[in-house]
C-alpha cells in the first residue's frame, strides 16, 4: 500500500482564480492519476500524471484548464485554472504501487468550493 | 470503451439482512475488477478485488465473484451491520502486459443505509 497526503484538504476559492493541489506519496510509485468527484457523483478520471513528461488527459479535460506536473516518483500537482462554480468538486490523487494488479490507493481528497 | 453499471441507491436494509449490490461491466480483454467503499467523511478504500474469471474476492464478510460469462461482479454480504453504511463503488481496469494499468473506471456508486 501507500500513504498519500494531499494539500489543501479543502478550500473556498473565488471565480476566475487558480488553485494548485499537491499530492505527496510516502514511497515511489509507478502510476499516478488525478480524479474528480462532483457532489453526489462517481469518480471521473482527469488524467494520468507521467513522470518527467506531459500528462495524458481523458476526453473532456485539457491541459490549459488542468495543468499537471510530476517531477519525480513521489510527488505531483494538479492546478485548477480560471475556476468557475462548476469546478466545485473533490479532487483526488491516486497511485498504483510497484507490481500492483490494477488497484489504486487514494488520498483523502481536496474539497474545492468555488464562489 | 470500458464502462461499469451498478444499481443505484439508496439501498436501505435492516441490520442482519442479506445484501446484494449488482455490478455489470463492459470491457475489452480481461479486466481486473474491484469494489471500493467510501465511509461517511472518509477517503476511498479498496474493499476487495478479483483479477481473473471465477476468482472470488473477499474482505470484512463481503464477497464478489468475477463472472466472465455474465460480465458481472456482484457484491454480497450475509449479514450487514450498521457500520457497513457507506457508498460502494464497482470499478475495473485493464492491465498492460508489460506492467502498469489504465486508471480505474468507476460505476456511479450505491449508497447503502443500514438501520438498527
Polypeptide structure, described:
The complex is a heterodimer of chains A (115) and B (116). Chain A has 115 residues and is mostly beta strands. Chain A has strands spanning 4-7, 10-13, 19-25, 31-37, 43-49, 56-57, 68-72, 75-80, 89-96, 105-106, 110-114. In chain A, strands 2, 4, 5, 6, 9, 10 and 11 form a seven-stranded mixed β-sheet that branches. In chain A, strands 1-3-8-7 form a four-stranded antiparallel β-sheet, with no helix packed on it. In chain A, strand 4 and strand 5 form a beta hairpin. Chain A is globular, with a radius of gyration of 13 Å. The mean pLDDT of chain A is 92. Chain B has 116 residues and is mainly beta. Chain B is globular. The N and C termini of chain B lie far apart (41 Å). The mean pLDDT of chain B is 92. At the A-B interface, strand 4, strand 5, strand 9 and strand 10 of A face strand 6 and strand 11 of B.
Task: Itemize the secondary structure elements and their pairings.
The complex is a heterodimer of chains A (115) and B (116).
Chain A: E1 4-7, E2 10-13, E3 19-25, E4 31-37, E5 43-49, E6 56-57, E7 68-72, E8 75-80, E9 89-96, E10 105-106, E11 110-114
Parallel strand pairs in A: 2-11
Antiparallel strand pairs in A: 1-3, 3-8, 4-5, 4-9, 5-6, 7-8, 9-10, 9-11
Chain B: E1 3-6, E2 11-14, E3 19-21, E4 23-26, E5 32-38, E6 44-50, E7 56-59, E8 62-65, E9 75-77, E10 86-93, E11 105-106, E12 110-115
Parallel strand pairs in B: 2-12
Antiparallel strand pairs in B: 1-4, 3-9, 5-6, 5-10, 7-8, 8-9, 10-11, 10-12
